[in-house]
Amino acid sequence: MRLDLFFAYRYLFSKKSKGIIRLISSISMIVVAFVAAAMIIVMSAFQGIENLVDDLFSHFDAPIVIHSPSKKFFRQDLISQDLLSDAQVKFAEPVLESDVWIHYDAADAVIQMKGVSNDYGNHSGMSQLTIAGGFDTSDTMHCGAVPGLGVCGELKIPVGDHLGQSFQLRAPIPGKKLSRFRENAFAEMDAYVMGVFSANAELDVKYVFVPLSKAEQLLDKKGEISSCEIYLNREEDALTFQEKWQPILQKDSLQITTRNERNALIYKTTQSEKWATFAILFFILLIATFNIVAALSMMMIEKKKDIAVLQSMGASVEFIRRVFTLEGILINAIGSCIGVGLGVLICFLQQKLGFITMEGAVVESYPVEFTPGIVLGILTTVLITGSVFCIIMVRFLWRSMKMTIAQN
Q1: Domain count of the fold of the chain
Q2: What are the backbone dihedrals phi and psi of residue 134, each rounded to the nearest 5 degrees, phi first?
Q3: Residue 233 to residue 86: CA distance in whole angstroms
Q4: In this structure, are 75 and 27 located in the same domain?
Q5: Which of 133, 97, 109, 131 is nearest to 210 (CA)?
Q6: pLDDT by residue (tens digit) across 212-228?
Q7: CA gap 338, 146 in Å, rounded
Q8: Residue 257 belongs to domain spanning
Q9: Whether residue 238 is found in the same domain as residue 313
Q10: How far, in Å, CA of 191 to CA of 142, rounded?
Q11: What pTM value is reported for the model?
């Protein structure tokens, strides 16, 4: 062990040190530990929320969506076969989406109808969100549909063991004004419940999925779609895919958007909240390091005689400063390691036991996700911050102590 580190260790854990100094040193460790644990917990919680939001939206928002920024619908054959056969493309799902009027018994509502293929449930992951029946849009003769749980609740459509209830979908006929044609201004189609999905309160009350051919028939949009959802082999290739095909699609007035672009507000808000909270905790960490400075200043005053003895034995000023600097770094490092370990333990217990619950939410317990990057990043931040602060403050305290000695 290096001599300066040995002195720092002995000064920190020596039983001969005054009780108040040991108490302040212990408090400094505890404060740093609690701040480090709080940073781990908060950042892991934000990461858990980000992953939860991304997971919820991934079933409704494909990594890549091709659409027309100027028109609601466009010809499906405008999308080139070269794009669809690209090596990065895993699945391509044409979608025909529009607002429709849904009627059941004596209840009515305006919802979003989404015409999709029979494979859409497995390709998008919507099958995992089906809570009754199955995500089945294969019945193109009688229009088997999959409404959201909120839609069923609003219209009082039975679910569970009472699937198969029929309802009506109505859409305006282009060119026919409601004021003149009244009921004849709408195209009607009977559908029945094949399954019910549930993602979150906002989406559950908004969507009903039907076969693509039935959506084309109701909207009179044969061969037209509102978008084409592209699922890639690796989602991280979304930007690369966009940069590659956007110039080509622009020739046909089509546009590619990624999931992050379509949900930019949600992602930016979450990121802003996360880093604002981190900045607040970092400021608290800076305040916590003042406890270390208090312990070091009292230690330096107590060890004045030891300092004089060391100087008489030939110890340099730099050596003595390093002793007290290393003592501060030890206090900070021990507190950091304890705090990070405590934070990881709490996050692990939350993942396994879920003792912090979320009633009425899409998940039973508060989501947390701690990764090696989060743990190492926070540990490094706390260690570097405390070490730099100790180096600066020990130099300042040393100059002040020399002035005091000179005055005496």
Answers
A1: 2
A2: -145, 160
A3: 11
A4: no
A5: 97
A6: 999 999 998 999 999 99
A7: 51
A8: 64-262
A9: no
A10: 6
A11: 0.69
